[in-house]
Amino acid sequence: MQIGKTIKRAGLESRSELVAFLENLHDVIMSRSGSIVVGQALSGKTRSLRLIQEAYEQLYQEELEQRKEAFHRRKSEVLEATSAGLSLDLMNTRGAGTLDIMDVLQGEQQPNALDLRPEEQVLIRRSCRSKRIVTHIVNPQAQPASAFMGEIEEKTKEFKDGILASTLRQIVSSDDGKYQWIVFDGEVATEWIEVLNSVLDDNKKLTLVSGEALPLTPTTRIVIECTDLSKCSPAIISRCGILNMADSVASPK
């Protein structure tokens, strides 16, 4: 992860303290299902997470362009070889996946035959080894507990998903290899953080009031931003990686 370049690209000073903190933060988040970033308001917690996300996005875009260029060159070679009556395999492009050669040659006589078609672009994107990070920002204190955790409706007796359950369902249904970060941005309260116990333990499942258990995908991470750990139980603390962000990390000298 080229975090130094990302910091400069964002117009910030790439100081050793900030680089070291971001590298540690990245390692903590990626090695644990749950992480807690502790720091005062405006200390740079949210910006630090975004810098890591931007670094991953830059790596992904660079690889994507390289694979597009490689695929385009190979496609050009296939079309030229076919015109000369030779046989060449388009699938020899490293990491480009599988594509029917006849599909490529259907547009051989067209002026834009070398342009990448939508299905080819999808194929190339799926072949990228670099992953993007998608963040889902949640402020548990901004809505009633029932809206966050879900509730059983009185009339229908059916369970209605809260924000947390809806977010997890969305992640599970669209699991495309991207890293999914659920970021809880706001003061910690016992009412909602204890709900995460079953998510952060070895089961890695969110147990709903209805009895349903929603699994945490391998690429999903729980990140909590807070100012202190006074409302966190020992069980929560023991299951999370914790990193303290001092005011001096993001502040100019």
Characterization of this structure:
This protein is α/β, with parallel strands linked by helices and 253 residues long. The chain has one domain (3-61, 129-250): P-loop containing nucleotide triphosphate hydrolases (Rossmann fold), CATH 3.40.50.300. 43% of the residues lie in helices and 15% in strands. The chain is built from eleven helices and nine strands. It has helices spanning 3-9, 16-31, 45-83, 101-105, 118-127, 145-149, 163-173, 190-193, 197-200, 234-238, 247-250; strands at 34-38, 133-138, 151-152, 159-160, 179-185, 205-207, 213-215, 220-226, 241-244. The protein has a five-stranded parallel sheet with strand order 2-5-8-1-9, with helices on both faces. A two-stranded antiparallel sheet has the order 3-4. The chain has a two-stranded antiparallel sheet with strand order 6-7. A hairpin with a 5-residue loop joins strand 6 (205-207) and strand 7 (213-215). Helix 3 crosses helix 5 (118-127). Mean pLDDT is 82; it is low at 90-102 and 104-111.
List keywords for this structure.
single chain, 253 residues, alpha/beta, Rossmann fold, five-stranded parallel beta sheet, two-stranded antiparallel ribbon, 11 helices, 9 strands, 15% strand
How would you sum up this structure in a few lines?
With 253 residues, the chain is of the alpha/beta class. 43% of the residues lie in helices and 15% in strands. Helix 1 packs across helix 3 (45-83) and helix 3 (45-83) crosses helix 5.
